[in-house]
Amino acid sequence: MIASAIAGLAPFAGEVRVAGEPMPVSGDPLAFRAAGGAFVPADRRDEGLVLDLSLAENLALPAPPGRVLLDRPALRRRAAERLSAFAVRGESADAPARSLSGGNQQKLVLARELAGAPRLVVAIHPTRGLDLAASSAVRARLAGACAAGASVLAVSADPDEAFLFRGSVRVVYRGEVGPALPPGTPLVTLGRMMAGLAA
Amino acid sequence: MSGFLTVTVLLAAPLLLAAAGELLLERAGSIQIGVEGTMLLGAFTAFAASQRGASPHGALLAAASTGLLAGGAFALFAVAGRADAVLVGTAWNLVGAGATGFGYSLLAGATGSVLEIATLPPVLFGLPAAVLVSFVAPVALELFLTRTRPGLAVAAAGENPLALEALGGSVVFVRTAASLVAGAFAGAGGAVLVLTVSPTFVEGVTAGRGFLALALVVFARWKPLRLVPGALLIGGATALAYRLQAGGATRIPYSVFLALPGLLALAALAAGRGRGGAPKALGTPAP
Amino acid sequence: MRTPPRVLASLVAAGTAVASLALLALVAGASPLDALRSLAAGSLGSRAALGETLVRSTGLVLTAMAGCLALKAGVLNIGLEGQFLAGAAAAAAAGAALPAAPLPTRFLVLAAAAAAGALWVVPAALLAEKREVPEVLSTILLNLVAATAVSGLVRGALRDPAGDYPQSRPLPDAVRLGPLLAGSRATAAFLFAFAAAAGLAILLAATPLGLKLRAIGLSPKAARAIGLPRARLRLLAFAASGALAGLAGGLEVLAVTGRLYDPFSAGVGYSGLAAALLGQAQPVPSAAAALVLAALGAGSSAMQRDTGVPAALASLVPGVVVLTVLAARARAARSAP
Fold first, then answer.
1. Top-level class of domain B3-271
2. Nearest to A39 among C211, C221, C225 (CB)
3. Whose CB has fewer CB within 10 Å in chain B, the N or C terminal residue?
4. How many Å apart are CA C272 and CA C289, to the nearest integer?
């Protein structure tokens, strides 16, 4: 909930600062993006992609190239670049997004979201439903975005994974954000905090 | 009962019947925007049956049967067939208008003269039994939905179809049953229209009442008892329009009052909270 | 080898159409062959017939395009009928009031018609956006209001003082479009229809805007998350489809009737929507379906005259065909993953 709100999907009171610079507060996804935000939603099929559009078309949204007519060569070029950069494996750039496997669909979402060097990346359950290889690929991409200067906020329901994301880890229980936990924190402690019990 | 009030009640009755049926269907999670087509089919059936010598009540029964079949057809396409209900409803309106126009041309031939049929006999307060029943229907529907087990199944199909399926119920069955009843009610509504106020049939005699019934359901926030005041309001506006039309010269053209029901319905939709109170699974296909 | 779904759907549609035509002819006591023959003759068999088909196709193709645009963007604009009437009323009012200079007046009349159509849908668009009122309901209610408004206008504000039939003042002859094919009612108006179909096809397939509209139509939930301005795009789709339907009404007055009367539309808005449904909201197939509906309408009055089969089947048969096609498509969607 908090993560979606930060991504602009719900209005909230308060302030969000990234590297000292404030982000727009209102529930406006467009303002969020204009300020350099990127969003990887929890449901890649219903919210992350337009399954019936092609890979290239998905990558082109929300701002397809071209002024009056669609600039198809530019579209294809961009698609080819990003698909190879993010190792998205599919039949072709013109195949529908529906035809990709779960892992490749998530890579496609990342390819779209991370391409523009965002300031803040909000990723909700980014590895849900993915196998080990795909999960680690997703985490690597997010780490890469971090290295490139973005702040990444990742939400996961899998305590095993928490420390695989590099960066500070906190447990959120019923809307309350807990303290930052050191890397060696045992799994049991994480589990107890997730259930709302004292550590 | 004074003349104006009687006409108002007579005009409200078809609307109430159609709206009550549609409300039941929507509470079950389906939506039939083709209710106008079904009302037309009911109206025509009543007319045709009367022409063939049926008594007014016989004609009413025939119309309800046609409506039942119409509800069955809708369920076949939109519930069991899982085609988009809005699109099916749009097509159904074409079917209703076309079929009744076709049938009327065949029946009335090239005479062009208006064919009159017998009206329903008044029983109480100068109102026919069917009209009185139409005011009881919302109450019966309210009791059905809140106090009976089938009624709860209907509500479940509309609010949480997956839960109903998990408990062993069949959403398709419930929605089909609701569609049959809704169709019968709409057909009866159409019949009451031509068997009371203006005892004849013309193409398009329902004049959008099916659509007003749809709006009435939303206006009533899907609670049966609230259908009655809205129906009376619309009936009253239409009665006023007819009176002005017959009466002749006034400063306000009677068309304003004919437009009033539609405008009132729009205002009600705007004032309400749109989908507030709608069954959660309304318009979604059966699982 | 499996037949491609689109071919199958067209075969189902054609088969259903022919079968129901034949059945209805029999019910009316006529020979199906005679009925089909006079349908063909009445729609394509002579210059006048062809002209009649073209005349009807203008309104139907334009409203079908309006339907396609709306459907592609996920907007359920069932109010094409009312927007058509609004456009016709605006055209009748403007045309009778403006000076009889052909070019500028025609432009203004059509602009007024398109604007009126777009404005007529705005209440529904706003209610959908601000109050979550389903546009299915609000657009239909606006249809009802439009019909009564036309009825009132031709008896009141726009009434033609000459003659006692309720209708509006006629447009000057110089402004009305002249016939294209000698001996028929067809004018250059149908060029608008084909331009609209071509334009829409290009818009949807080959422009950034078209891609965005298709995206919000295909995945409304993804639209917000991806960063598309869904509300703005939907409003645009509403307004544009309203404008197209209004333009259709304006052309009907400008090119065909020359004035407004009551009742004015024979369900053009609903038939155009049916054509869009048959064409699965794709511009070219929908325009083709609209042409078939136009031919059906043109031929059916000849058919009624010659064989006694009521012309109302020109609404009944399309309705039945749409139902069958919808059912066939739903079944195909369920069997394929």
1. mainly alpha
2. C225
3. C
4. 9
